[in-house]
Every structure is written in C-alpha cells, then in structure tokens.
Amino acid sequence: MKDLDPAALDALAALADATSFERAAQRLAITQSAVSQRLRTLELQVGQPLVVRSRPLRLTEPGKLLLRFARQLQAMRADLAHELGEAPASDQRLPIAVNADSLATWVLPALDALVHEGLSLELVVDDQDFTHDWLRQGAVLGCVTSVSEALRGCRVVPLGAMHYTAVASPGFIADMLPQGLNLANFAQVPFLIFNRKDDMQQQWASKAFGVREPRLSERYVPSSEAYVRAAAMGWGIGVVPELQARPLLDSGALVALRPDDRLAVRLYWHQWKLGPDGAAPSARVGLLDRVGDALLAGARTALDVT
C-alpha cells in the first residue's frame, strides 16, 4: 500500500467525529469539497469505500481500521510536539473511553494534574462492558473497561476492582421493605437501572438470591450522580459503587441491603502501542502513556487492587 496522506487521514477522523461533511469541514477549516476530495483520495488508495454517506454518516469496517491508524498518527504527532516543547494545537485532543461510575468517582482526580498541565482530553462514556468497543473501532486511543483480553497492538494493565452494593433510603425501606429484602419480595420492588446496557442489578439479584436471569421492576436513571441521588430520594433500590455511596451510607441517607452480597467488577486500562515493537523507550513518556500511568496511580488509591 502506498503511503497514506496524513491530511486525508485527518479528514477521515474529522468525519468520524463530526458525522457530516459540513461539520468536518468546519473543524478542519477547509471547504466541504476539500474534505470530499481528501476522502476520495484515501478511498482510491485503499480501493474500498471508507464512509457510508448517510445522515449521520458512519464509517465502513475498512474505514474503522483506517480511523484507528489516523488516531495513532495524531497521538504520535502530539507526542513529538510535546518532546520538542511546542504548544499543543488548539484542536488537539486525546480521546479515551471510561465507564460512568469510574468517571463519577476516581477518574477525574486521577487525571486532574495532566489536565492542568494543558493536556486536552476527550472523555467518551459508556458501560464498562462496552468501552472496549470504542477502542476496537479506533474511536479512542485508550479505555477503562471490564474486558481483560488485549487487542492485537494494544497493551493492558489491571487497575483493580470496584465493589458494588445494593442500597436504599431509610424511608423506602420502611414503606416498601418492612420485613427486609428477600427472595419473596425482591422482584416486586423497583430497582434503579442506569440504561438498557446496565445489568448490574440483575447480576446482584442473581448472586443474592440464587435466581437465574431474575426479572426486576425497573426505573431508569441514566446518570451516575443522579442515580445515587434517586436512591437517596427513595425512588428504588440502587446497586452502586461503595466508593460513591460511602458518604451517604455514613450519614444514614442510604442503607446497605444485604451488605455481604457485594459484586466486584474488575477494571483494566487498555491503550494502543503507538511505537514499533521492540523500539527503545522515548526520553520522555508519551502523552498516552502518561494518561495510563495517572489512571493506574489513581486506581491504586481508590480501587481494591488485591
């Protein structure tokens, strides 16, 4: 394959981000026809269509492979600029995917110093079982995920475990569970669900009551912070990270239900290897490596690493 035009790869990345030719052109500060020309040049080079021209547009599978390469090339350019002491470009950013509960608890403190140094991050949020898909598709350069197996060309580092426990407000327990939560009544009381990807509550009920594929009464609250608040307001039973619930448990605003029945979700950091295998390490650590190191340090203080 001939050398791929970096400007054309940047156009592909902009199309993936903006999902339209108009917004991609605005992002790159060029005309729409120039974006189309760069995309056509890239498609001719690889001999395959890279974009499905729908609304919103989406990448084909070959397009996702090239997007992965484009992201890596952008990250290596950022590393080089960093090592040369150049100021980062205003539109330069490093996309990583994290799960919502980690974002609501330990991720922001872990990355705080890097952001204040000027690192421009894009945080993509998804369920911990699905953040890995963003990495595989090339949309991000790293991810916090429950998936332990590394993709080819990636490295993976264990971060530790987040422990989840079932909680409810004292008022909810008094009104709905005067006899406690048990096998006879758990399916009739409302459980709070983050979104339709979230099966934490089913996992917890299955473990607590030995029921395979339990059916729950569901109320959806698609925000980690609002989810815990809804539990404290008596909307239902929440299955939440102990790390997030601890202040409310200590104050009595929430009560743990069956505290011995906890779930441990093990998390991992995945990132693309941006340098060739066997290459000597850089005199300065690359930006993506610094993000990984910061997350690992933050996880050591917040998660169960045993």
Quick synopsis:
With 306 residues, this protein is of the alpha/beta class.
Question: Which descriptors apply to this entry?
Answer:
306 residues, alpha/beta, 7-stranded mixed beta sheet, two-stranded antiparallel ribbon, 11 helices, 20% strand, elongated
Tell me about this structure.
It is a single chain. This protein is an alpha/beta fold and 306 residues long. The protein contains eleven helices and eleven strands. The protein has helices at 6-18, 21-28, 32-46, 61-83, 100-116, 131-136, 170-176, 200-209, 224-232, 242-251, 287-302, and strands at residues 51-52, 58-59, 94-99, 121-126, 142-145, 154-168, 190-193, 217-220, 238-241, 255-257, 263-272. The strands form three sheets. Strands 3, 4, 5, 6, 9, 10 and 11 form a seven-stranded mixed sheet that branches. A two-stranded antiparallel sheet has the order 1-2. The chain has a two-stranded parallel ribbon with strand order 7-8. Helix 1 (6-18) packs across helix 3 (32-46) and helix 2 (21-28) crosses helix 3. The radius of gyration is 23 Å and the shape is elongated. The termini are far apart.
The multimeric state of the shown protein is: single chain
Order of helices and strands: HHHEEHEHEHEEHEHEHEHEEH
Mean pLDDT, nearest integer?
A: 89
The rounded distance between the terminal residues' Cα atoms is 47 Å
Main sheet properties: 7 strands, mixed
Number of helices: 11
Q: Kindly estimate the percentage of residues that lie in beta strands according to DSSP.
A: 15-25%
Give the low-confidence spans: 277-285
Instruction: Give the structural class.
Output: alpha/beta
* Helix share, percent: 40-55%
Provide the gyration radius in Å: 23 Å
Mass-distribution shape: elongated
Number of DSSP E strands: 11
